[in-house]
Structure formats: structure tokens, C-alpha cells
Amino acid sequence: xxxxxxxxxxxxxxxxxxxxxxxxxxxxxxxxxxxxxxxxxxxxxxxxxxxxxxxxxxxxxxxxxxxxxxxxxxxxxxxxxxxxxxxxxxxxxxxxxxxxxxxxxxxxxxxxxxxxxxxxxxxxxxxxxxxxxxxxxxxxxxxxxxxxxxxxxxxxxxxxxxxxxxxxxxxxxxxxxxxxxxxxxxxxxxxxxxxxxxxxxxxxxxxxxxxxxxxxxxxxxxxxxxxxxxxxxxxxxxxxxxxxxxxxxxxxxxxxxxxxxxxxxxxxxxxxx
Length: 273
Hints:
Blueprint: E1 2-3, E2 8-9, H1 14-44, H2 84-88, E3 92-93, E4 100-106, H3 111-129, E5 134-140, H4 146-159, H5 164-174, H6 182-191, H7 197-204, H8 207-223, E6 230-233, E7 236-239, H9 244-262, H10 268-271
Helix pairs in contact: 1-8, 3-5, 3-9, 4-5, 4-6, 4-7, 4-8
């Protein structure tokens, strides 16, 4: 295990490597198919122009949320995407129109993730989330093997009944860093007040849970997350359980930039045409 500045890189389990390689292969295949489709369409197009029924192949769009991308990946100012996820994500807290979005990629068996959850996270909520300045969006990024996967799927299952953050707190407050069995996940769900435990168990074992976790990992890898915890504050990447003041400074800067982008200062040429 590699530890860098308050972050953990979990052991590269065979299952994790297979999942990342498989997702990368699927993504590469999709891009290649899109390119081949465009070449095929270009080669079969009539020389006299296209008929009203001919439409170009739609470009392949990444499912990666823009606010989860590193700042270097785009040059235009940060813009909050108008996505249904922005208002319906049960693993997020804060106003959907908050000027600052902090995306967190974390593992429930990561000690530094637990430190952030117990120390800095509540401060960010009381100082910024409650004030409508920040929205925190949690992303599962299990990198420590089967126990991590189990808890990631359990967290997703708890979210289906609106108890994600309670589950999140029950796990991190317990300070557990060893692989957990299903009955332990069930215990956390019970402590979190998940109302229907039978549904929780079924949801945790469902293909939808695994698909959701796999997609979260794929997005994290594409965004540049390599270890936990990794954060993106309006696109700027931060790694590790950094001092609280570091997060405060980054949030303050991001909020200032967001306000400036929304209300730019008018130049003299605009004021006096």
C-alpha cells in the first residue's frame, strides 16, 4: 500500500484490475466504433450532397460529469451542468445550484477518508453547505478489495432508501479498516436507520448496485483519481486528508471565481460606449 500526503492507494486486487481494464477496453471499443461509423458514413454519402433523411452520426459523449474533471481537462470557465443527477443524487448534500461543487472519491475502508469524514467534512457542511455555497457529491471508489466493494454497494443500497449519509457516518465513525462481510454492512444499515433491511440486502446484491459502483470507479479513473480520498473542487484536484484550512481556502477561491464569472466587472468601454 502506498501512502502519499494523507491519501491511500490500496492493494491492486485482481478483481479491481480486471474491472478497470475491462471498463477501459469498453470505452476504447466505443470510441473505435464511433470512428469507424463516421468513416463508413463519409464513404457512402452521395457526391451531390445529403438527402433530408441523412444525418451524421452523433458524437460519442463521455458520461463523465464535467464537475468531476480535473481543471486541466478543459479551458472554459466552470459551468454547473443541468443534469437530473444534480437534483436527484441521493449521495449528495447541498443546494443543486451551489456555486461550488466538491466531488469526493472515497473508499469506506480508507483510514484517511475516515479522518476527513470525522474532522473536516462536518466543518465544510456547517460552514459552507448550510450556507448554500457548496454542494458535496460522494463517489464510491473502492480500491481495497472485496470489503471495499461490499461497503460501496451497501452505501448505494442505503441511498436507495434515502439513508446514504447516515450509512456513511455509521461506517466512518466506527473506524473500520478491515474487510467487512455482508452482515457487518447490514449492521451499519441498521445503525443508519435504513427502514427496509430486506430491500437493502436485495439492493446490495443487485446488478444495479454493481453497475453503479463500476461506473463511479470508471468516472474516477477518467477524472484522474488514483488514490483515496481524491477531491475535485469546481474541477481542481485535491488529494488526501489535507488540513481543513486548505479546503476552506480552495472553496473560498472557487466561490469567488464562480461569482466573478457570473457577474463580470464591466470595462470602461462597456460603461461608456
